[in-house]
Structure formats: C-alpha cells, structure tokens
C-alpha cells in the first residue's frame, strides 16, 4: 500500500557549508552564493573596490583552508562562521595596512577578474552616494584634486571615462586616484566615528 503523501518526511536541504566540508569541490557554491554580501560588507567599510575585492578573496581563501574546522550543521551557523572570518580579515587589514591576496583559482573557486565592469559593480554595492552629506566633514584629509574628483564622481555621478578626459589622464590612473582618496576618507571616517563614540561614552558617564 502506498504511503499517503501527507505523511512523507522531507528533510531539510543540507547546508552549503556542510556540503563544502564533505566535498571541498562544491565550495564554489558557497562563494557564488555569498560573494556579493561579503564584498558589500568590506566595500562599505573601506570604500575602495579593489581593496574590498582583495579582502573578500582572502576571506573565502581562509574559509576554504579551514573547512575541516567548521563544526556547524546549518546554513545560519555557516554564515556566522563566514562573518567571523570576514570581521577578522578587516581587523587584520586595519592593523597591518595590507592584504595578503591568495589565489582562489588554486583551490577551484571561480574568481572574476577585477576589470572595469566588476570595479563599477562593487562601487554600486558600496552605495557611495550615502557619503555625500559627510564628505565635507571628512574631506580635509584629501588633496584639492582628490576632493574635486570625488565630488564629481560621487555627487555629480560622472563616470571615469569622462573625468579622465577632463583631467587629461587615463582611466586606470584616475581609478588609482579615487582608490587612494577613498582609503584616506575611510580612515578619517573611522576616526570621526571613534571620536563620536568616545564623546557618547563620556556623556553617559556624566549622566550616571
């Protein structure tokens, strides 16, 4: 006699992280599923698409090398493990000021090259327009040229090709200028946020 359909037990799909632990060749599924979330996490903190891309790559390289040490069984536990590694990579970068880029292709993970399209896609993930309101406050650390280029690119939404032509340089050189400016801006924003936290803590102590 056939078992009624309603009594069938359908198991929960196996976590991508568990599948990768059991079969490292499937780690590419983890990468393809979460790469945008991870690169968005980084680029909204460091502001530099190239640096965010490198930090994302290093995060997944660390995840791959540590698959056997992952003890979770659910997707939620896998994500928590992933974000812990990502936060650690961010702290390491802040301390050492550089990223040790590993070649993910070596471990069978398809990593896109950081060409113009990928660079602009990561910039979109950063949502740089949200910094318009605080650009004046933090822009004192930038050179006049860096401030001008950032304002034109972020506030007026002008593309790299147009700006490179106007400033008499190449798109690659202009991206490098923007990259350096965004890194300096990120450092200054971090300092300003730390000052605000200190002031808030001082106010709380006065109240108590």
* Corresponding CATH architecture of the largest domain: Orthogonal Bundle
Radius of gyration over all CA atoms, rounded = 22 Å
- The count of β-strands is 0
Low-confidence stretches: 197-208
Describe the largest sheet: none
Overall outline: elongated
Give a short synopsis of this structure:
By secondary structure, this protein is an all-alpha fold. The protein is built from 9 helices and no strands. It is 66% helix and 0% strand.
Notes on the protein architecture:
The protein is mainly α and 208 residues long. Helix content is 66%, strand content 0%. Helix 2 packs across helix 5 (116-126). 25% of the residues are buried.
Helix-strand layout with pairing:
Layout: H1 16-22, H2 27-46, H3 49-65, H4 75-96, H5 116-126, H6 135-138, H7 144-155, H8 160-167, H9 171-207
Helix pairs in contact: 1-2, 2-3, 2-5, 3-4, 3-5, 7-9, 8-9
Core attributes:
disordered C terminus; 2 domains; 9 helices; mainly alpha; 66% helix; Arc Repressor Mutant, subunit A; Rna Polymerase Sigma Factor, Chain: A; 208 residues
């Amino acid at each position: 006699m056939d078992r009624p359909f309603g009594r069938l037990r359908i198991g929960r799909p196996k976590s991508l992280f568990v599948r990768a632990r059991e079969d490292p060749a499937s780690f590419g599924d983890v990468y393809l599923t979460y790469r945008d979330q991870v690169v968005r996490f980084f680029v909204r903190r460091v502001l530099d698409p190239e640096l965010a891309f490198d930090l994302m790559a290093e995060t997944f390289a660390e995840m791959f090398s540590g698959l056997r040490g992952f003890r979770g069984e659910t997707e939620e536990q896998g994500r928590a493990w992933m974000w812990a590694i990502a936060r650690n990579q961010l702290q390491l970068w802040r301390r050492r000021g550089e990223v040790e880029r590993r070649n993910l292709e070596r471990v069978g993970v398809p990593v896109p090259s950081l060409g113009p399209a990928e660079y602009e896609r990561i910039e979109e993930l950063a949502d740089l327009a949200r910094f318009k309101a605080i650009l004046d406050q933090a822009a004192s650390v930038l050179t006049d040229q860096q401030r001008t280029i950032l304002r034109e690119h972020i506030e007026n939404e002008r593309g790299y090709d147009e700006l490179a032509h106007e400033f008499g340089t190449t798109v690659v050189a202009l991206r490098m200028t923007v990259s350096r400016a965004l890194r300096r801006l990120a450092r200054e924003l971090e300092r300003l946020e730390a000052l605000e936290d200190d002031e808030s803590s001082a106010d709380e102590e006065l109240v108590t």
